[in-house]
Write a structure and sequence with these properties.
- The structure is a single chain.
- With 322 residues, the protein is of the alpha/beta class.
- The strands form 2 sheets. The protein has a 6-stranded mixed beta sheet with strand order 2-1-3-10-4-11, sandwiched between helices.
- Strand 6, helix 8 and strand 7 form a beta-alpha-beta unit.
- The chain starts with a helix and ends in a 5-residue tail after the last helix.
Length: 322
């Protein structure tokens, strides 16, 4: 290239910075997925399964960065403040929508701070008790709670998660006086139930499945509108008389706002390629995670729709915003 050609190209790039950005290779380094949950839960399992395949598609490592706490605020702020270049993603979920609906003030605007990339999966929530405990059915639990107001402890992961709000909704829908006890993560909930510290727990089914299959935890009911594909003999809470309880979950990926559309599209293709892979699908389906490929627009609709939905649930249930 002559000196004159170089100067002309430099001038063109200065006048059209998007062209310079478009010419930049993506990804140029490792891609980080920030997960607002502790290791071992459904969000972590999903991110790792999909991220492993994405690394092969993108040609760069995909690193999982677990940042639990504060209803996803820590993880959300980390990604909201990251460079909008596609190298930092946030695992969003119905819990992200719950936080936007439940907290009076967040350090970011959920709908403005992020650009959704793709849905990942949908999955069930389940109410469980110690297999060797007193509760053999959901009816047993309901009876104990009604006969002993304020004494039943129901564990969930962090405040502001879908599981936490679903437990509050269960409490309201069933007309119970019970204590919802948030823990740091799913492993802590499992330990507390098995040790007798908790009477029961409400959590995503997938990370509890091994404990259920191993006869350590007993599933009492799923909280969605339909029975689980994995546990077809376990009734829904609505079937057992808890009307108005319809709570399931989903997750997806997002990047900081202002990330170039071409980068978002490249990430979307990598995610959908992962979800189309038989090995990834088998891994997710074995944990009752139903792969849910889709467009960035699909993910955006899921997020905005759930924010509206959970806001209505909070108002209807009389749950105080925090």
């Amino acid at each position: 290239m002559t000196r004159r050609q170089f100067l002309l190209a430099s001038a063109a790039a200065a006048l059209c910075p998007t062209a310079a950005v478009a010419a930049t290779k993506f990804p140029a380094k490792a891609v980080r997925i920030v997960v607002p949950n502790a290791p071992g839960g459904a969000a972590d399992i999903t991110a790792r399964a999909v991220g492993e395949h994405m690394a092969r598609t993108l040609g760069q490592p995909v690193v999982i960065d677990n940042r639990p706490g504060a209803g996803g605020v820590v993880a959300g702020q980390t990604v909201a403040n990251a460079a909008p270049d596609g190298h930092t993603l946030l695992l969003i979920s119905s819990g992200t929508a719950v936080s936007a609906a439940l907290f009076k003030a967040l350090p970011f605007d959920t709908l403005k701070a992020f650009t959704p990339v793709a849905p990942l999966a949908t999955f069930d929530l389940v109410i469980v008790a110690n297999e060797g405990g007193d509760f053999r059915t959901l009816g047993d639990l309901l009876q104990f709670a009604r006969q002993n107001p304020g004494k039943l402890n129901l564990g969930t992961p962090n405040i502001g998660t879908t599981q936490h709000l679903a437990a509050e909704l269960f409490k309201s829908a069933a007309g119970l006086d019970l204590q919802v006890v948030p823990f740091k993560g799913t492993p802590d909930v499992i330990t507390a139930i098995r040790s007798g510290q908790l009477h029961a727990g409400l959590d995503i089914l997938s990370p509890l499945l091994a404990q259920i299959q191993g006869k350590a935890l007993r599933p009492l009911a799923v909280t969605g509108a339909r029975r689980s594909r994995v546990l077809p003999d376990v009734p829904t809470a609505q079937e057992l008389g808890v009307k108005g309880l319809n709570a399931a979950s989903w997750n997806g990926l997002a990047v900081p706002a202002r990330t170039p559309a071409a980068v978002v599209e490249q990430l979307n293709k990598a995610v959908n390629a992962a979800l189309a892979d038989a090995g990834v699908r088998q891994k997710l389906e074995a944990l009752n995670l139903d792969p849910h490929p889709g467009t960035p627009q699909d993910a955006a609709r899921m997020l905005s729709g759930d924010i509206r939905r959970w806001s209505e649930v909070i108002d209807r249930a009389g749950i105080a915003r925090q």
